[in-house]
Amino acid sequence: MNTFTLLSVFDGLTIDRLYGWLSFGASAIVVLAALIVVHEFGHFITARLVGVRVEKFSIGFGPKIAGWKKGDTDYMVSWVPLGGYVKFYGDDPDVEVDDERESFLNQPVWKRLAIVAAGPISNLILAVFIIALAAVIGLPTGSRVIDKVNEDSPAMAAGIKPGDTIEAIGGVVMKTWDDVRETIYKSPGKALKIELLRESGEKVVVDITPAEHKEKTLDGKEIVIGLIGVIPRQIIKTYPPHVALLKGAEWTWSMTALTLWSVEKMISREIPADQIAGPIGIMKIAGQEASMGFVRLLRFIAIISVNLGILNLLPIPVLDGGHLVFFSAEALLGRPVRLKTQEIAQQVGLFLLISLMVFAFYNDIMRLIKE
Known about the structure:
Strand order of the largest sheet: 5-4-6-7
Helix content: 40-55%
């Protein structure tokens, strides 16, 4: 890309906007580095627990910026912050070891599987605690109280006013805003009776027909939902620690399922490939979430942690999932997968990974150009 093209891409940026991006970019790198520390620590602590020596613990790739040595392990920070690694003693079959008891490749298969799986699992556990913290601080949620009625909407035509509380729809008691939303979403073009409680204490019943609204799902399919044109009043709901942990576990389970579903849909091309975001896209989203409050930022960090865990479990050589495939095959065959086969698979995996990163950067840059 020549200088003129670069200038034309960034021509619309103000100094404040550029400074904001750089600030959020630095914050995003710090957050990503923290998530990588947790991921690699999962590998590290599990290896130590099962008796494997750890030679290096690095945050980032490439040349070392700084580091120190404690015990048998060199701890370091390297120049490229988009990853990290743990190097185990005896993980190279071509290098002889002095102590086979602490050698990675001389461990039973189940120990090696545990060590490799511990990284992604650590990211999922972290997400549970992040959401639990957010729940203790207070999660914003919609209430059944109407905060705003949109102009020229079915709600305004029916006489719904700000401050009204939705008590029931079609004779069914509404306990939460989610109940209200789901009932209306499922009723496009269908006449409904909504029971309201006014701020004055008066109870009224209004007839309303939700407007038909077309929207696209994550996989690009078009669906029709019902909308009445109201915005709920937001409330902050806090939870005690034991309930917050349960909320964190439920949320992480749901996000894990959604992430797996999204990966499957991207592979089958039901979700457009241009939805993939790279570091620039992540920085931008991080900035948007941070501007909406600390709890929203916590939730975004938890989403990245779940994605980091799940994507590392994909059966691609050079990722944790690829190693899990090799070790699982070894357990089934009773012997290690041929070294030449592993090397070829890792080269292919590295090519796929680099291609994906380049494509994600391309998507980010194209979004910048279109803004």
